[in-house]
């Protein structure tokens, strides 16, 4: 009926998924930066905006 997956195995699988998603996210961010550089587009930096809003 249903296969039992231990908590330890679930944790390992989820950590692997998380690591793969982080790699994909980093690659996508690098591609966006490269495209912006090629087409001379200025991208907004979310981290700078957050810091500006906190100091105001």
Automatic annotation (TrEMBL):
This is Phage protein. The lineage of its organism: Bacteria, Bacillati, Bacillota, Clostridia, Eubacteriales. It comes from Ruminococcus bicirculans. It comes from the Bacteria.
């Amino acid at each position: 009926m249903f296969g039992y997956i231990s908590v330890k195995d679930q944790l390992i699988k989820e950590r692997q998924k998380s690591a793969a998603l982080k790699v994909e996210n980093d690659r996508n961010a690098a591609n966006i930066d490269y495209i912006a550089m090629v087409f001379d587009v200025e991208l907004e930096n979310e981290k700078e905006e957050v810091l500006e809003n906190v100091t105001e």
